[in-house]
């Protein structure tokens, strides 16, 4: 059985000792993040490593929990533990695009096509980012923008450019979706 995000973080937190865990809890609440919720100290004050991991994953999803744990470890000066989690993160990212257990070949943006078409509301900034990062061309950008509703724009995006993205293009598309629709992506990642 392969190591999970939860296993990796617990392993690192167990190695901190009580003083290190106390610093981790305090800094976890102090760190200001660009997006996403902030964890209140009362929620983690008496939490052990197992409880902290549950709180991190419930608050930020698995990938987000890993990023936050790395950020906090660096903030408390534990570079070695942060590097251990970064190595784990890199080993996880070697697989071909984010997918769901039980369906290893299907990319997240393909798996949740229907949900993304129905629920994405910030289509214009997503299109702007795709154009800026040269994932789509100006003509595709114009075609998608010509549709009247968010759902029609997302459907047009899927019918045209997304078909030709490939894994790296879909990875960038997912990054952009996560940037502009963080709560939707977080919700979808927690559905399965």
TrEMBL record:
Protein name: Apoptosis-associated speck-like protein containing a CARD
Disordered: annotated span: 84-104
Keyword vocabulary terms for this entry: Cytoplasm, Immunity, Inflammasome, Inflammatory response, Innate immunity
Record gene name: ASC
Compartment list: Inflammasome
Domain named Pyrin: residues: 1-91
An annotated GO cellular component: canonical inflammasome complex
Domain CARD: 101-192
GO biological process: inflammatory response; innate immune response; regulation of apoptotic process
Species of the source: Esox lucius
PROSITE patterns: CARD, DAPIN
Top-rank taxon: Eukaryota
